[in-house]
Structures are given as structure tokens and as C-alpha cells.
Amino acid sequence: MNHFLTFFETMPVWQKLLWVVLCIALFWVLEGYYQDVTKPYKKTKHARVNLSLLALVMIINVVFGVLASGVFVWLDQTGFGLLPLLDLSIGASLFISILVLDFIAQYGVHYLLHKVPWMWRLHLVHHTDQHVDVTTGTRHHPFDFMIREVFALIAVVVMGMPLSFYLFYRILSVLFTYWTHANIKLPGRIDRALSYVIVTPGVHKFHHHNELPWTDMNFGNMLSIWDRLFGTFVYGNPKDIVFGVDSAAHVDDQDLLVQLRAPFDKTIKNKSY
């Protein structure tokens, strides 16, 4: 187990970037063979704005990487957090850390990004995409990404987890992000069976519906248990799904500058419950 975790802790930047590229490429190819939503669109043009936002996020990620490294050094020196107190095996500690990260840094912050009005305005950029596919997983406003990273560090500090745990989680999270957004269709029974434990493409599509209440359901990224526990899980008729945000239907979802300005666009109204 130590050698396994050391691999992630010493993983060079180029390998992390390669993992992102491979995940996108894998599901991009699978979308060609097992496409779910068949509404025609220019796939390459559509990917440009999403990948451009990914590039901006990666630049910000470098800054957060420096901040995070300082946090991990401090945790190592002070022994702060729940894991040092619990004194569990490495396997058990890793399992609990993944659960906590998935809850706080994925489900929890995602819930707030939908429920807190000013946060929603940042997050809606992710939802304005009217053609959800694998590249939508990269579509985040830089300020949205910053909020997510802060919550991830909160989870790290609370648990007092080592860097290797966090990096392993990030590798898993990247895979699930592109898996859940991929425009692929699984056999209905398999999708439903998997959805009792993990988030599937079929489950996450409801979250990208353009209207409430589905927009505010299925917040999970990896595990679906949080949505089931807190009553935010839905599995309706996929044929009823329309991608986008109803209040932002008038803005160009394929214009990068328009999307960067979208959180501050007064013509886009907040949700009305």
C-alpha cells in the first residue's frame, strides 16, 4: 500500500496532465460508439470553449498547488486532524479520506454552489452548456474552481490527511468527472444498478436539465450515496431532459468571453423557487 501511495505522491506534472488527456480522449472515442443524446452539434467547436476554461483552471491550479503544499507540510509537522487521532490502518484511513473528500469537496460544495445565490452565478457557467459531453466536465468558471479547491483543502485539514491520499483522490475525481459528463448510454438496468453506489452518466444528466427541480438534484461526483441519504437523488425519464439553464438561454454558450462575464450579467436572473 505504501508503494502504491508513493506513486501518486511522486507523480510528475506531465503524468497528471497525461491522465486528464487520456480520460478525455477515452470518453470522446466512446461517445462516437455509444452516443446517448443524438442532437446534432459541432463537437470540435463545442469543445473549444470548454477546453479553454480548463486551461484557465490549470493555471489557477498551479497557484493552489503551492498553497496546498504548505498546508501538507504544516499538517505533517503538527499532526493536526482526525486521522492521527484515530490511528487506523493505511487502507482504512485512505477509504475514510476518500469518503470525506467526496462529501465535502464534491457533494457539499456542489450543493452550496446551487443554493447560495452568488455561488450559483459562478457555477451556472458549467450549466449553460446546451450540449453536455465529456468536455463539459472541464467547463468551470475560474472563481467556481477556486471555491471548490478551498473546500477540498478544508477536508484535507479536518482529516489531517497526507498528500498521497489527496492526490489519489484527485486522480479518481478526474476519471469520474469525465465519466459522468460523457454523452454515452449504458444499458438501462446496468446504469440503474450502478447508480445505487456510484454516479453514472445517466444519473448526472438529470442534474444538467435546464429547469428546477432536476437542476438542484444529483449533486454527487463519485458516490451517489450522499444524494440518496439527503434526498437529492432523482432518476426520471431521460427523454425529458433539456440541457442548459432556462434563465441563461439567451446568452451564447459557445463564446468564452460571454461565459466568463456570465456571473456578472444582470440579464441572467437568479433561480426562483
3D structure, described in words:
Helix 1 (2-9) packs across helix 8. The protein has twelve helices and no strands. The chain has one domain (44-261). It is globular. The chain has helices at residues 2-9, 13-33, 43-78, 82-86, 90-115, 117-127, 142-159, 163-181, 188-194, 201-207, 225-229, 256-261. The protein is mostly helical. The protein starts with a helix and ends in a 12-residue tail after the last helix.
Short description:
The protein has 273 residues and is mainly α. It has helices at 2-9, 13-33, 43-78, 82-86, 90-115, 117-127, 142-159, 163-181, 188-194, 201-207, 225-229, 256-261.
**Rg (C-alpha, Å):** 19 Å
Number of helices: 12
Overall helicity: 55-70%
Secondary-structure element pattern, one letter each: HHHHHHHHHHHH
What percent of residues are in strands?
A: under 5%
Q: Strand tally, please?
A: 0
Distance between the termini: 48 Å
Q: Domains counted in the coordinates: how many?
A: 1
Major β-sheet, in short? none
What form results from the Cα inertia axes? Answer: globular
Content-based structural category: mainly alpha
Residue-averaged pLDDT, rounded?
A: 94
Contiguous runs where pLDDT drops below 50 for at least 5 residues: none
Quaternary structure of the protein: single chain
SSE blueprint and pairings:
Elements: H1 2-9, H2 13-33, H3 43-78, H4 82-86, H5 90-115, H6 117-127, H7 142-159, H8 163-181, H9 188-194, H10 201-207, H11 225-229, H12 256-261
Helix pairs in contact: 1-8, 2-8, 3-7, 5-6, 5-7
Short descriptors:
273 residues; globular; mainly alpha; single chain; 12 helices
